[in-house]
Write a structure and sequence with these properties.
By secondary structure, the chain is α/β, with parallel strands linked by helices. 31% of the residues lie in helices and 22% in strands. It has 2 domains: 202 residues, Rossmann fold (3-Layer(aba) Sandwich); 243 residues, Rossmann fold (3-Layer(aba) Sandwich), CATH 3.40.50.
Length: 572
């Protein structure tokens, strides 16, 4: 049988990656086979700190024509780690401090690895901090001709082949999007603050309201307004950069983390600013603080308030409506199917995703689901639809949600991250090293899982190539045993992903007579089971029947994500 794959790239790399992903899937399956009861903990602080200098290098080299000596950068990168460790002992709300400090040459792959590790550790209650101190940085033009900063990681940062030796704020944005912590502090002590601030607004803070609302981060950026200087700290006798000097001189009670707490400890918050500005008077730099939430308010006011006649806008999130009556519960499904792709050089047109979506819509409608369909839609439309499903619902623990994707999928081996391809996703010039400008137009599984985790009962179904690689993108999840037991099954949290496979999956099957199927093999099997047994069949029973289907290759995979409470149930 001749089969068209839901992909466009075919190489030996895929075969190796398929074996690796199979091993990873086995690992995840065994690791979560039993019940995991997680001990509740307090707030943890996670820090990635980079301080680079080229002191002692050849002064005539091309590297040092851009990158100068900065031994203080190294000391500050180490010092910021020690600062938070000491702070833990002086305040009562920090449970642990975990630091990753780099003061020698690193590579972009190293950042990918440490951020992949953090994805499995950091929770939404924690605080994440990224600190960067160095003299060296440069400016280049992005694909739209706008200036974009690139920030050095090693001595090769000024060479022609610098893709793995520098990072941009677009790299940093995508990596921090995947970190669960809603409170994120980015401290930049390098370069010209005027350029850096513009770089943050253009490339780190998205001006796409749908994307910002989807990620829901509270990121605060601290950087010099112009240039940063060094000075002796009179209290310790150490030479410190201006930013670290101000931060480390704050009283423990009014430490830098107080900047996140504007509500619960209002008096402390006001006193924090008092000490902050007093400390600024003792340094040469002016320091800029940029809050992503304020930027979102500005964008929202420009978008939604142009005709109100008001001289301001206060954006308050709507109070969630709660109804725990099982009779008021709903079943909803969002179906996203894509045949046509703007990035035709990378992603060829597919035959069946929209067919699959339409047939799935009929089946789910017959099972009592409210159905929303998106066919060949851009990323913005998909994110908005998911946000509407998550954010604008009456909260009912008995509600059931399904999100179904059919189309192309992509796996980035360097970041160990899976992505869903949208109709407007960009071409990928180098499959082995996709650029962030390209990947930002795809849907990142990790961010998707984090959004869906806000629902109580949800199943994500992916019929895309490498859909099973989503297990590598899973956010940290835990299972909690509910002592109330069997009676609470219908109410307890349920979070599952069901993928058509971890490798390439077929778009259609060509039969011996030359005709082709009108659905993908996975969709054919799924819809057949639901048509015969939907309404009574549980998720576990559905998965078991799909795995036992003859000729269904690759084998479907499933995993949990987010926070589950067992015993639980999801009946289609």
């Amino acid at each position: 049988m001749q089969q068209l794959k839901r992909k466009n790239i075919d190489s030996r790399w895929h075969s190796k990656m398929s074996m690796l992903l199979l091993l990873l899937t086995c690992f995840f399956s065994s690791a979560y086979a039993g019940v995991e009861i997680k001990k509740k903990r307090g707030t943890s602080v996670y820090l990635v700190s980079i301080g680079l200098s080229y002191e002692g290098k050849d002064k005539s080299s091309s590297v040092n024509s851009v990158f100068n000596d900065c031994s203080t950068c190294i000391n500050d990168a180490k010092g910021i780690s020690g600062y938070f460790t000491r702070l833990k002992k002086e305040v009562g709300y920090i449970d642990t401090v975990i630091s990753y400090v780099y003061t020698k040459d690193v590579h972009l792959d190293t950042l990918f690895k440490v951020f992949s590790l953090l994805q499995t550790q950091v929770t939404d209650k924690d605080i994440f901090i990224f600190y960067y101190a160095s003299i060296g940085w440069g400016i280049r033009q992005d694909e739209s001709g706008n200036p974009e900063g690139f920030y050095m990681l090693n001595q090769l940062a000024n060479t022609a082949n610098k893709e793995n030796n520098v990072y941009t704020l677009r790299h940093l944005k995508q990596l921090t999007d995947r970190i669960a912590a809603k409170r994120q502090l980015i401290i930049f002590d390098t370069g010209d603050g005027r350029v850096i601030s513009a770089d943050y607004y253009r490339n780190f803070f998205s001006d796409n309201i749908a994307e910002v609302a989807f990620a829901k981060k509270n990121r605060i950026v601290i950087s010099p307004e112009k240039y940063s200087f060094e000075a002796v700290d009179s209290a310790t006798g150490e030479i410190k950069g201006d930013l670290f000097k101000v931060i480390s001189s704050l009283p423990a009670r009014y430490n830098i983390l107080t900047i996140f707490d504007t509500v619960h400890h209002e008096a402390d918050y006001k006193n924090f600013w008092k000490y902050w500005y007093e400390n600024q008077l003792k340094i040469r730099s002016n320091i800029s603080i940029i809050e992503e939430t304020q930027y979102l308010k500005l964008l929202s006011s420009l978008n939604n308030n142009t005709g109100s006649g008001k001289r301001g806008l206060t954006i308050k999130p709507a109070e969630p409506k709660v109804d725990e009556n099982i009779a008021a519960s709903k079943k909803k499904v969002l179906i996203v199917a894509t045949n046509e792709y703007a990035a035709s050089n990378t992603w060829r047109r597919l035959q069946n995703p929209v067919n699959d979506g339409r047939d799935a819509a009929k089946i789910f409608s017959s099972l009592g689901y409210e159905v929303t369909t998106l066919y060949n839609k851009p990323k913005d439309s998909i994110l908005t639809a998911i946000s509407d499903m998550v954010d604008n619902e009456v909260q009912n623990p008995y509600n059931q949600y399904i999100v179904y994707f059919a189309g192309h999928g992509f796996y980035d081996a360097r970041q160990k991250a899976g992505f869903i391809v949208c109709a407007d996703s960009k071409d990928i010039a180098n499959i082995q090293k996709p650029a962030m400008t390209e990947l930002n137009s795809y849907i990142d599984y990790t961010v998707l899982f984090r959004k869906l985790d806000q629902l109580n009962k949800v199943v994500l179904i992916t019929d895309v190539c490498f859909g099973g690689t989503s297990v590598n993108s899973l956010l940290q999840f835990s299972r909690e045993v509910d002592p109330k037991g069997e009676a609470e099954k219908m109410k307890n949290a349920f979070k599952k992903v069901l993928a058509s496979g971890i490798t390439e999956v077929d778009d259609f099957i060509r039969y011996h007579n030359g005709s082709i199927s009108s659905n993908s093999p996975f969709a054919t099997a799924l819809l057949d089971v639901l048509k015969k047994e939907g309404g009574t069949i549980s998720f576990e029973e559905l998965y078991s029947k799909l795995k036992s289907k003859k000729g269904l290759t690759p084998t479907p995979v499933e995993s949990s994500f987010g926070t589950e409470k067992i015993p639980n149930v999801f009946s289609f």
